[in-house]
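Researcher: Re-running this chain for the archive, since the previous output was lost when a drive failed. Same request as before.
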Amino acid sequence: MSNSCQKRYRRILQRKKERRKQEKVRRKIASRNKIREDIELNRYHSKKFLKNEVSNRLQIALYEGIRIYIDCSYEALMSPKECNKFAQQLCRLYGANKKATKPLSINLVNFSQHGPLFHACQSKCDGFLKYKIGLYSETPSSITPENIEIVYLSPDAKEPLISISENCAYVLGCLVDEHILKVMLRQEAENRGYRAVRLPIEEFTSGKISNPVLAINHVVDIMLAYMANGGDWKEALYSKLPGRFLR
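Model: Regenerated structure tokens:
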């Protein structure tokens, strides 16, 4: 590289460094102004207060919220790579649930605390053992009150999910292999005598793939959006469904 090119390259780096420094100062000033404004309007809360508020909201939702069961009985069919992929999806799911004003009750069922899924979650999910979620070795029927209907969410179910009900507990599969999952969830529901439904993607979107197999975090994202917007499936699906399914 010639001397002139080196000088030009150094000038570019210096300008980038200065812009980053200016942006950092700008963000700091904006943050201070926001805190000052919140204090004046009596709406400022410390980070510790907000963290405790989120924790309390999740704790209440765990026992009183609409139940989501993630069935981990399929872990024997999963490779280490698939277990890690599931753990990453669980991290994203939990992050979305933390931000929700009305979070769901997230529960792992048929879950072994000595199996590969547990170790993957510990490895990939920071603070996993402190998550406000239920960890059960039992089946959904063993931990569900008699007045709550167990419903399986399966992409190839004939019946669309019309509304999310407090009187239902919704079962998702932990499998990340789309081809196996699509068949097994519906069969599991039929074998156990439970109703199987699918997200109403076909009814409310115009995507080429009518009922795709979604990651568990995408399913929960859509359900949270539906609950937050007052029950509008179209808005929830278009805001949270991955773009590749809407083209």
